Amino acid sequence: MTAAVATPPVAVRGPAFGSTLTGTGRLLRFMLRRDRLRLLIWPLGIALLYAGSLGEYVILGDDPEAMAVRAALMTTPAMIAMAGPGYGVDNYTAGAAAANELILWILLTLAVMSILQVVRHTRAEEESSRSELMRAGAVGRQAPSVAALLQVLIANVIVATVSGLVLVAYEFDAAESFTMTFSIALGALVFGAIALVAAQAMEHGRGATGASLAVLGAAYAIRTIGDIQEEHGSALSWLSPIAWVQQTRVFVDMRWWPLGLCAVAILLLIALATVLGSRRDFGAGLVAVRGGRADAAPTLTGPLALVFTQQRMGLMWTALGLGLMWFATGSVVEAVPEMAESVADNPVYAAILGQSEDLVRTFLGVFGLYVGLGSAAFAVAMTLRAKGEEESGRTELALAKPVGRARWLASGLFWAAFGTVVVQVSGVLTLWAGAISSGVEEPGFLDYLELALAYLPALAVMVGLAAALYAWVPKATGIAWVLFGYMFVVGLFADLFDLPDWARGISPFWWVGDPMLEGVEASHMWGLSGVAALLFLLAFMGFRRRDLPSV
């Protein structure tokens, strides 16, 4: 007999640390390729925003009286809320104006971009089950999160570099220019890291996005309250990452150390996300999902109620957030006549405001355009939610029930259009309320109401265009966002750039005119309404003809 040879037990070793990051490079390359168009649009959009604003500061910098009036505005509570604590107002230069008035809005924009990108490539991928298929290969547990954060880092660095070059092109100091743009990028990365933590805690992509945006909103509110309490910010301000970026005081008294708070916060948030990610089950979140009803409520008997349930929170927070901003904007209208006297000979303001003698109405017309642009962004975003539903596979499930394609699409378009009306009308009315609170009683309520309603046909065109693109060529829905950016340029800088009428006419808002000064041209309203109706018809025709899914 042969004796059995005992096989010694094999020691089972835990996974090496590096194995949790296996495949990070490949995932990063895939994400960059997948989002190459987005990564092109963001730097270009931010660069255009800088370019459109910096010329004004450069020209005003040669007018001490105009800069003194602008500096005085920066000390009002409304402007502190809308911009920041206001450094260098005693000797207000073009650089100080650019930093005080641009940092907050560029930071908010890049923070939203960072949040959306991180959630898109982490929690949203898990929710769609694509991440599970990917993890079946040689991909470490932490690789998707690290790759997503690296992609956001690359995107912010590109934006910061391009923006810094634009500032230098306008002859701002190079060192301070790049300090400003890279500090904004670092601040945006803080919120990207917050989104990474939320992606571990929440079970659904919308929950992670909502929680991250809620933190961003809280940071804005804390910064605002803290800055209003005390000149150049109080102790409360330092609880907000937004304040850390503004405290660099570029173009006034530049200092680097507040950016160390951003770096420490990013490292701590990444460590927290790593711990949370290793303690949860794949596909699950750490926050328990609230149990729902055993059966659907009687009101959820069709797609119309379903879409409302999906979009109601987005509508509420958009209307509330933009409404607060427009109220603050309206509260500074009382200072318009004084400021207008000091900039009467300024070519930038002359191009934007025209030759009207009623400067209050003229400024309100410009503010009304901003309200319309905010409503247009909401209109496009809500309309294209239908694309997200199709990508997730929920559209096919809905259409498997006794629900026709036309009914399903009509439900989404109805609430997108309804929400756009709410955002537009509430925005203009809060602008009116802000003006009333500052003692400006003229124009009256009916003038504001006409301003709000005048933009509705143009907004209907935006909803119809986004719907038609989704119905016929889903991959081309980005054209709606391109048109949105073009509308911004035409609305504010058409005269400055001396654009011909045919180029202006591409923008639906150009046909609205200036309701505060010239009233509403009925033929233009009917024309825009006709275009919108045609686009809606094309949307329904296209959606009935194409295969699902094809996005």
From TrEMBL:
Cleavable signal peptide: none
Keyword terms, alphabetized: Membrane, Transmembrane, Transmembrane helix
UniProt superkingdom: Bacteria
Transmembrane segments: 39-60, 102-122, 143-170, 182-201, 256-276, 314-333, 363-384, 408-432, 452-472, 479-497, 525-543
Listed name of the protein: Exporter of polyketide antibiotics
Lineage start: Bacteria, Bacillati, Actinomycetota, Actinomycetes, Micrococcales
